[in-house]
Design brief:
This protein is of the alpha+beta class. It is built from eight helices and nine strands.
Length: 322
């Protein structure tokens, strides 16, 4: 029985191939799908080949076996052709898309040459406008400053005041003893290694040059900020080294502190090693008028010539106001 079934199955396979090839060649578009045609023909052949005693259920088993062995090539062939058709269609669509892209004009980048030129022109115009406005503003400021006339002073620096000290001859002196004279005051100490000697030499040279150029005398005044070591005798020997008219003042530490505060002078001792120490202090010369009021100060950056010319200029302006 099994061998008879196997032979019948082989016969059905051969018939199925013949029928499939004919159906695919003649009825590609008008007839039903190949699987339906094959199924009908195979059913007729099965009924003619299978013995009469086999029932409907066995017929379905033969049909399932037949389609499981022969349906795959057909379906695979159909799927292969469909994929080929799809790929051909994809190629054609790709070609058509490329041809359509080729037919389109290529647009420029986000910034064209015209936009770039307009941007450059706008920037140049803004810069030119800014420069012109800046020049005009500066000219207005210059004109306004030239048009302003010099008016009366609204106030004077709070520099100077009363003091009560001892000169290098041992006499008590106050600010009133210098009234009616132009005075140039310098604060320092006799143990100063370099700065004080340099400044006092400059002061002495300026006093002589002022006498030569302007014909008036100015009183040079040295006030010590180291009263603990700068005694009257020490100060007297010290001032002789610079100028015969240089007046040295010392005194009680409290009186020295008051005078320094009145002239806004800073001074402080550095680290002490026994009695050998230095004093850090302001390096300023104060020009006082005949009324012992502050006129101008001169710093370390002024040399002899600028100090001389500055004092002469301040005296002329002072006299012109009187």
């Amino acid at each position: 029985m099994a061998s008879a079934l196997w032979r019948n199955a082989n016969i059905l396979r051969s018939a199925n191939r013949i029928i499939s090839s004919r159906c695919l060649g003649q009825c590609r578009s008008a007839m039903p799908p190949p699987s339906a045609v094959i199924e009908n023909h195979s059913s007729t052949l099965l009924r003619s080949v299978i013995p009469v005693g086999v029932g409907a259920q066995s017929l379905r088993v033969y049909q399932r076996f037949f389609f499981s062995t022969n349906g795959a090539p057909v379906s695979s062939e159909i799927s292969t052709k469909a994929e080929k058709t799809k790929s051909d269609g994809g190629d054609k669509s790709g070609d058509s898309q490329q041809s359509s892209d080729a037919g389109k004009s290529v647009r420029g980048g986000p910034v064209s040459w015209l936009s770039f030129l307009l941007l450059v022109a706008t920037g140049a115009g803004i810069i030119s406008y800014y420069d012109n406005e800046k020049k005009r503003h500066i000219e207005e400021i210059n004109k306004a400053s030239e048009a302003v006339k010099e008016g009366p002073s609204v106030g004077k620096a709070a520099i100077g005041g009363p003091f009560n000290l001892i000169n290098h001859d041992g006499k008590n002196v106050t600010e009133k003893d210098f009234m009616g004279k132009w005075t140039l005051i310098y604060f320092g100490f006799t143990h100063c290694p370099d700065i004080c000697p340099d400044e006092l030499q400059k002061l002495a040279a300026a006093v002589d040059k002022i006498k030569e150029k302007a014909g008036f005398e100015i009183v040079p005044l040295f006030i010590s900020v180291d009263p603990e070591r700068d005694t009257v005798e020490q100060v007297r020997e010290y001032v002789k080294e610079f100028h015969p008219k240089l007046i040295g003042l010392t005194g009680d530490p409290d009186e020295i502190r008051k005078a320094a505060r009145a002239y806004r002078v800073y001074y402080m001792k550095t680290a002490e090693e026994d009695s050998d120490y230095l004093v850090d202090h302001s390096i300023v010369m104060y020009l006082m008028g005949p009324d012992m009021q502050f006129v101008k100060f001169f710093g370390k950056n002024n040399d002899v010539d600028s100090l001389t010319d500055g004092i002469i200029k301040e005296r002329k302006q002072y006299k012109a106001k009187k």
